[in-house]
Write a structure and sequence with these properties.
Length: about 450
């Protein structure tokens, strides 16, 4: 059965600008364990005292997942992995000529000796060992086989085939893994695929098909450069295509949101599975189909992933979707009224970027000439926001500007960094808005002031 090793805490923390606290790492490890990943790569304890501390804390949590420490092939690195209490050490050492010669200035035989020596050391300390030939995909194949078999003989029970630069294509990954399998002594095989050409998950899946046992992921696909496969996408793929049913897929979006918040690394709206738009439908053709039978435009039921379908209303929207949205508010309209409402939405949608429910209800009110009880009187508020120190204020401002209800955003001096002027229809919406804001990546703290009277409306 295919397995997942999640490396958010090691590879993921190698993402530019990303630094987790020990507490955040402990929480991420707990959440990963709840998803059910088989292994958690908790960090390289030699990197810093805090990384050591995080590995030690996570190793002591008694998780179901095996806790792995990453390490260079050095005595001190392996001793630190042991001292931190990891069950396994993943020793990496390059095998490609360019890495050996131009990075380390070592020849192949010396490399082989260093690798086996350190594996034996780790085994003598009672650690399980994975050996990673770094840059395996650009390594002379015969040498790769020789090194891996020597590593297995020295005591490694896992080999991680690393496509460190993400240069392989899926069919090449398949062929390489298949050939390696045929020539390797018995061992488990991991695949560590980088995403430089956007093929990381495709490569990982082909590698599994060719006989590998485990793929490496990070939450939100973080990592060096373009990162490695995203955990949520990988878990869904294994569920759908490889019969792996034990991962708790419904917890993946909240894990993604938590990691987004504490890392300051934003999830793109078009990201599969966890992105804002992954289950949104916009054009009239699509929304009409989805309202009749969601399977017309959804290959996966969003509920399987703890998500909800979203129908976007704007100038692309047809009558069916508008009627459905009005019905959600308990409002029935005549066919001719509906036609005029949609027409008006198209006109406004041509000029304005985002249409909110309040706008749609207001249009319905104008068109029908009926005062809608459900249309509430709006609340104005100023929300002050403090931004995490490692996050650019501009990045949070950009996000805020796209949020529903936000009218003006100011970067300000003082304790807080941003003031946002918002208009919301109800206190319930105000509450939801503030909750949403609190989980936004980069937002440290919020303070909200409700406006009681507004004396001049000059648009400021
Ligand atoms: C790196 C090392 C590594 C190791 C992968 C692994 C890679 O270059 O930082 O241990 O499986 O991509 O080769 O992340
Ligand atoms: Cu890597």
């Amino acid at each position: 059965m295919a397995e997942i090793l999640d490396s958010t805490l090691r590879e993921g923390e190698q993402t530019p600008l990303v630094n987790f606290t020990v507490e955040e790492k402990v929480e991420i490890a707990r959440l990963l364990d709840a998803v059910g990943v088989e292994m958690i790569e908790a960090g390289d304890p030699s990197v810093s005292p805090k990384v050591f501390e995080a590995v030690r804390r996570i190793a002591g949590l008694g998780l179901k997942a095996e806790v792995v420490a990453h390490s260079l092939a050095t005595r001190s690195g392996i001793e630190k992995a042991h001292a931190a209490g990891a069950a396994r050490v993943a020793i990496f050492y390059p095998t490609s000529r360019i890495h050996l010669q131009n990075k380390l200035g070592k020849d192949e035989d010396t490399a082989l000796q260093t690798i086996t020596e350190h594996i034996r050391l780790a085994r003598s300390l009672g650690l399980k060992v994975r050996y990673t030939p770094e840059d395996a995909s650009r390594t002379d194949f015969d040498f790769l086989v020789r090194v891996c078999n020597a590593a297995i003989e020295a005591g490694a029970d896992r080999i991680s085939f690393a496509d460190t630069l993400g240069v392989l294509r899926p069919h090449e990954t398949y062929e390489r893994v298949k050939a390696l399998r045929q020539r390797l002594l018995p061992c488990k095989m991991d695949l560590h695929c980088h995403n430089d050409f956007g093929l990381a998950l495709a490569n990982a899946l082909e590698g599994l098909r060719a006989g590998a046992d485990c793929i490496h992921t990070t939450v939100n696909g973080m990592g060096e450069r373009a990162g490695i496969p995203d955990l949520a996408e990988a878990a869904l793929a294994l569920n759908r295509w490889m019969g792996v049913e034990h991962y708790d897929l419904r917890t993946l979006p909240s894990l993604a949101a938590y990691v987004e918040r504490v890392s300051g690394f934003f999830v793109a709206p078009n990201k599969p599975v966890t992105g804002l738009n992954a289950f949104s439908h916009k054009s009239g053709v699509h929304t009409n189909g989805v309202l009749k039978d969601p399977r017309t435009y959804e290959s996966v039921d969003p509920a399987l992933l703890g998500r909800e379908r979203r129908i976007v209303i704007d100038k692309y929207t047809g009558k069916k979707a508008v009627a459905a949205r009005l019905e959600e508010y308990g409002l029935q309209v005549q066919p001719d009224e509906l036609e005029r409402i949609v027409e008006e939405i198209k006109t406004i949608g041509d000029e304005r970027k985002i249409l909110h429910d309040a706008d749609i209800l207001e249009i319905a009110e104008q068109v029908t000439g009926r005062r809608l009880d459900i249309f509430p009187r709006e609340i104005n508020a100023i929300v002050m926001i403090a931004v995490e120190s490692h996050v650019y204020t501009g990045a949070v401002v950009r996000r805020l500007k796209n949020l529903k209800y936000v009218f003006n955003v100011y970067e300000i001096t003082g304790e807080q960094d941003i003031a946002a002027y918002i208009k919301v229809p109800t206190t319930l919406e105000l509450n939801n808005f503030i909750e949403e804001l609190r989980t936004m990546p980069g937002v440290k703290q919020t303070e909200t002031r409700v406006v009681l009277k507004k004396h001049a409306d000059n648009g400021f």
